[in-house]
Specification:
The protein is mainly alpha-helical and 341 residues long. It has 2 domains: 11-257, Fido-like domain (Fic-like fold, Orthogonal Bundle); 262-339, Orthogonal Bundle (Arc Repressor Mutant, subunit A). 62% of the residues lie in helices and 4% in strands. The chain is built from 15 helices and 4 strands. The strands form 2 sheets. The protein has a two-stranded antiparallel sheet with strand order 1-2. A two-stranded antiparallel sheet has the order 3-4. Helix 2 runs parallel beside helix 9. The longest helix has 25 residues, at 233-257.
Amino acid sequence: MRYQPPYSITPAIMNLVSEISELIGRYSAQTEGNLTPYLRRENRIRTIQASLAIENNTLSVEQVTAVVEGKRVLGHPREIQEVRNAFTTYDAMEAWDAAAECDLLAAHQSLMHGLVDDAGRYRSGGVGIFRGEALLHMAPPATQIPRLMADLLQWLSATDEHPLVASCVFHYEFEFIHPFADGNGRMGRLWQTLILRQWKPLLAYLPVETVIRQRQGDYYCALAKSDRLADATPFIEFMLQALHDALGEAAASDQVSDQVSDQVAVLISTLEQAELTANHLMQALGLSHRATFRSNYLNPALQGGWIERTQPDAPRSPTQRYRLSARGKRWLLRRRTTSSP
């Protein structure tokens, strides 16, 4: 018989799935065309920093950003290596199948490269999860891991459960099995993101880990409660609430980001009817100092996704021009609508 993880669909779970689906619809419409490479990267950095912080990595968002940018950072070499590995691993996620064991092992190899000797391989010994000196969970014997993981991955590939619920179930079952000697927590969160990404690609850039980090005690309590009950339901409810709240925070953050500086607003308005070179933009704005133009006008507008290059693959091209992005056009439309009598 096929394995069926133990859990129940409670009214709370049904309500959260409904509310999250509605939030995703709103967020998708709100961010369509707006989730620029800059914003995706910013959300990815927040995700990585929070997920590693749960595992006691002390690097701040600013330090993680510096590591990703290849800058020198004063920090423990292991923590810096964890950041590099995580960024590489999340970037590779698009090519993976959540139900494929080979991809799961490849992800662990990438995530734990240079940190453990058996990266990309299931553990060969016993392992317990401790908090201080208290044993929270004794994982199944190592000899059972191949069978347990095969059952779980087969369930994931065949289930008709809603992806929101299935991702939470997998996350809990993965943590229960604890298949690797190290890196299980970050792998469980990564794989839930992958499952959600396969359902809604936008969710690959939802920094739900920041919410989990803020509620880390509740996260472990939900895992422990599900362990005691031998039922994933409490953990599903916790994770769905975290997803719900992360979507709410992301939507609010995006609305705040619609507030542009006076300089960027003028630049957006200048590009309303035409594509212009940097020199022509400076002339239209009445500017003569190139450094001021780039730092106060051009770069913030590009980084915010308000404008875009006509030749994105050749940013230094002498024939480069700039035009409004879809986000910039919507901002102009909203401003025109709100300012009209």
